[in-house]
Design a protein that fits this description.
The complex is a heterodimer of chains A (498) and B (407). Chain A is an alpha+beta fold. Chain A has 18 helices and 18 strands. The N and C termini of chain A lie far apart (50 Å). With 407 residues, chain B is α+β, with helices and mostly antiparallel strands. In chain B, helix 7 runs antiparallel to helix 11. Chain B is globular, with a radius of gyration of 21 Å. The chains are: A alpha+beta (498), B alpha+beta (407).
Chain lengths: 498, 407
């Protein structure tokens, strides 16, 4: 992919030394990194195919410091790329040559735990897992659980609207937030949402910020909802001869009004890679495997385990196991949770895709992926959040073979186009970033994108926050204001004039 | 007043494009049941959106439905019920609050006002169920955002921005909603004769337990009688759903949790459903047209004690708590400011906010219906409004001074 980032502002680059000096006056000495040798760790995120050294990295500790840095960048017209733990798979934290990286790594404290109101307030650099760790002894957890939860931060989760394997029942990040504190590009500090109350006043800007990929502001505080740990939990593991049969089983479970904690599917290549990697006892001969996890009040889980087992059998499961204890349940998950490293072992490199489709179109998309795999001569292992139609095809390639990365990216783009063609979307939980930026036109027309970019202008009129991400073409805000779909000609001349 | 009733998104775009050019202010009307919500719209013409009605595509297996925003809620609910499904955000039938007949509200109205019922804490708000939207901006451009699947982070989440924007950003022409399965059985547990303080504490214990209640509300005695729930006494009501074999165990677990504070009495069948419809539709505080009606969002643990405190300051106050105390409804006897000077500071002190849902016009002219935002946020909201509707022609005035936009 010939990824074109916005042209670097030579004037800003020429004044790098002055910028670093000014940042140094705003922040403690250890909070500004400008030595070339120390910038290395920040030159990419988890989409490692793309690297770029920024002008400098700042590591503020307080909201006031973030506000001062942003106000300075606003005044000097310096671009800013916010960064959490750098686990983005879509290049959301890729630095810019003429911009700084604003790392939230030092915003690492939990500020308030309020069990009576079932909420927790944390700084954005706290890891996702640390939220749950802080309250699990009291019988609560923070529900969204992206597979990078040991490393990824709640601030990054807000930026990407992260999901995880349990969002079928418990929702995505956006469904589990109560409030935010954030800083606008001009340094203004605002609070969004309802604090500890549901449904804040005014426009739902909390909802807009969630998943906005660092383009609208810098989040400095997050209040999340806590969920009581379920009383009972059990899982079923079923192997199927065909992907169609497994897909039909998923439809039957959801159609019965059951809301499992999660339903995961793996295809043959993923099953065997996982089995080779950590021996979870998956059926190697199966074309597709389902893990269905049920949680809730103990009696309800018991009843639903029976019902789901019957539905899986009726859908033609060739093998079926159900957990008797928690150790066994964690064993079921071991293979799924290690699917990425397992695939990493059978291929030097892989690209992880992230489309979502209507559930009923699953086998159609898998057939298409198999065709594309043959066409490009690259293998593809498939793991899915099957309950919500979120696919993670892993395209296997070798970056040392000239041209293979380009081929893998073209393959990935074709998969995402196929997702959109059947009524799905480009990204379910990883974000657009740079990775899917140039595919936005597959889902949205020029007007759709102009409306979104005008919203960006309301937050960041100079386009300084994370430019080059999400939108394929950058427009100046003044230009967007003039853009008019009908080119100035009024439609329907017979309509009355005011 | 001139009235436009466009029959297609293209024609609607044509009407708005002209209004934008001429600065003609438009009052957007769907079912017309919420004209009393917010502040009066100051308009030159009525934009009747009733033609954007009907179910376009319902896929029960995918649990999504695409429809016109003017589709009556009753129509949608009937279609979903045939497939054993429902709208999990359970929007209230709010027309009767404003003296309209029941059953006339539309889906678009519920979305535009972000109205959610007792299931909101667990199932999410109206805004959480809007997956995709097609609408016309205040410039007369047709745009779409979101999609037809739940898991979607492609572009900004504009459906959330549309929900609760009261028609001030765009005129919606097509909505895609997530729908949910209906559990095989449901039951309501009543814990009787609790005072507000005890009820407040108990509701937090139940909410923090692993019992997964579908809804929790508290009705003081007077409102319990007016709500006509079968037990007609002050009560914490807890709704459960699930496989019928598991519900008895839930009631027993609840009794274990509650201990000897109160015996658990079960309300089942139609009585259970009707009780929650009455809570959802605020029936216990209606009709009572002379009273002002407030809706409060507060931290749940503070709800009941706040209400009891307000009841001592405002004699004759009627109230009840939904969302385990996080949502309070107040019916205030006639007062010059509808009680705003007493209510708003106490709610703000808790970090919550208060909406004056219904009051005589003379009071709404003095008291903002929506909580006024701080300056920085107000400026941002005005810029967002201008990004969608630069001439300020869509429902101007409805949000009062809260989000005034360019005019």
């Amino acid at each position: 992919m010939a990824l074109i980032m916005p042209a670097a502002d030579k004037a800003v680059m020429g004044e790098r030394a002055a910028l670093v000096a000014e940042l140094g006056r705003l922040l403690p000495a250890d909070a500004v990194i400008s030595a070339a040798s120390a910038l290395g760790p920040y030159e990419c995120d988890a989409l490692t195919a793309y690297v770029q050294r920024p002008l400098a990295v700042v590591l503020p500790r307080t909201t006031a410091e973030v506000s001062a840095v942003l106000a300075l960048c606003h005044r000097r017209k310096v671009k800013v790329v916010p960064r959490g733990a750098g686990t983005s798979l879509s290049g959301g934290a890729l630095p810019l040559e003429d911009g700084i990286v604003l790392s939230l790594a030092r915003f690492n404290r939990i500020l308030d735990i309020d069990l009576a109101n079932r909420c927790l307030t944390a700084q954005p650099g706290v890891t996702n897992l640390a939220l749950t760790k802080a309250v699990e002894a009291d019988g609560f957890f923070y529900a969204p659980d992206p597979s990078s939860q040991i490393a990824c931060t709640i601030g990054g989760n807000v930026a990407e609207n992260s999901g995880g394997v349990h969002c079928l029942k418990y929702g995505l990040t956006t469904h589990n937030l109560l409030g935010l504190e954030m800083v606008l590009i001009d340094g203004t500090v605002i609070r969004l949402g309802g604090g500890k109350a549901l449904d804040g006043p005014g426009y739902d800007l909390l909802g807009v910020i969630t998943g906005s990929e660092g383009l609208l502001g810098v989040v400095t505080e997050v209040t999340v909802r806590l969920t009581p740990k379920p009383q009972g939990i059990g899982a079923l593991l079923a192997g199927f001869d065909t992907v169609e049969a497994a897909g039909a089983a998923v439809g039957a479970i959801i159609g019965a009004g059951i809301v499992p904690g999660g339903i995961e599917m793996m295809d043959s290549l993923a099953i065997n890679a996982a089995e080779d990697f950590c021996h979870p006892g998956y059926p190697r001969e199966a074309a597709a495997l389902l893990i269905v996890e049920l949680d809730g009040p103990a009696g309800e889980v018991e009843a639903q385990m029976d019902e789901v087992a019957a539905l899986l059998n009726a859908a033609g499961a060739r093998s079926l196991r159900r957990t008797r204890d928690d150790a066994e349940r964690l064993g079921f998950w071991a293979g799924r949770k290690s699917a990425f490293p397992a695939v990493g072992r059978i291929s030097p490199d892989y690209l992880c895709m992230d489309g979502t489709i209507p559930r009923a179109r699953l086998s159609e998309i898998l057939t298409k992926i198999a065709e594309l795999s043959a066409h490009y001569g690259l293998r593809c292992a498939n793991v899915f959040h099957a309950g919500d139609g979120n696919l993670h095809p892993l395209i296997l390639y070798d970056a040392n073979i000239p041209g293979e990365l380009d081929k893998a990216e073209a393959f990935g783009a074709d998969i995402l186009r196929a997702c959109v063609a059947v009524g799905g979307v480009l990204t379910g939980e990883h974000g657009v970033g740079i990775e899917k930026r140039d595919l936005m036109g597959e889902m949205f027309d020029e007007t759709d994108l102009a409306v979104q970019q005008r919203l960006k202008c309301a937050f960041d009129p100079a386009g300084l926050l994370n430019p080059g991400k999400v939108f394929p073409v950058l427009h100046r805000c003044a230009e967007l204001g003039r853009l008019h779909v009908s080119g100035g000609k009024l439609r329907f001349p017979e309509l009355p004039r005011f | 007043m001139e009235r436009f009733q466009p029959t297609s998104a293209e024609r609607l775009a044509g009407v708005i494009e002209r209004a934008h050019a001429a600065g003609t202010r438009l009052h957007l009307v769907g079912g017309g049941t919420k004209a009393g919500f917010g502040h009066p719209v100051v308009a030159d013409a009525v934009l009747d959106l009733s033609a954007f009605s009907g179910i376009e595509r319902y896929e029960p297996a995918e649990q999504v439905i695409t429809l016109g925003p003017a589709t009556p809620l009753a129509t949608v609910q009937a279609a979903l019920a045939e497939e054993g499904q429902r709208l999990a955000f359970d929007p209230p039938d709010i027309g009767p609050v404003f003296g309209e007949a029941p059953g006339l509200g539309t889906v678009g109205g519920a979305i535009a006002a972000n109205l959610s019922g007792p299931g909101r804490p667990r199932a999410g708000a109206a805004r959480d169920h809007l997956l995709g939207v097609e609408a016309v901006t205040g410039r007369g451009e047709i745009f779409k955002a979101g999609g037809r699947v739940v898991k979607n982070v492609t572009g900004y989440d504009l459906p959330k921005l549309m929900a609760g924007s009261f028609g001030t950003l765009a005129a919606m022409t097509r909505l895609t909603l997530r729908v949910a399965g209906r559990a095989p059985a449901t039951v309501t547990a009543a814990l009787l004769d609790l005072d507000p303080a005890a009820a407040g504490r108990l509701m937090q214990r139940i909410s923090g337990s692993a019992l997964e209640p579908l809804a929790i509300a508290y009705l003081p005695a007077e409102v319990a009688v007016r709500t006509r729930h079968p037990l007609a006494a002050a009560a914490v009501l807890v709704r459960f759903d699930g496989p019928s074999v598991a519900l008895d165990e839930r009631l027993a677990d609840l009794q274990t949790l509650v201990g000897d504070i109160a015996p658990v009495e079960a309300i089942d069948g139609p009585d259970s459903d009707e009780t929650w419809v009455a809570i959802r539709d605020i029936a216990g505080l209606l009709p009572d047209g002379a009273r002002a009606l407030w809706r409060l969002s507060v931290p749940p643990a503070a709800g009941c004690s706040l209400a009891a405190d307000l009841a001592t300051s405002i004699p004759g106050l009627r109230w009840f708590a939904d969302w385990a105390g996080g949502r309070l409804w107040l019916a205030v006897p006639p007062l010059a400011d509808a009680g705003a000077a007493i209510i708003r500071p106490r709610v703000q002190a808790l970090g919550g906010h208060a909406t004056l849902v219904r009051a005589p016009a003379a009071i709404k002219a003095q008291v903002p219906a929506f909580e006024p935002p701080p300056a920085g946020l107000a400026a941002l909201e005005a810029r967002i409004r201008a990004a969608f509707d630069p001439a300020g022609i869509l429902n101007p005035g409805i949000l009062g001074s809260g989000i005034s936009g360019p005019n």
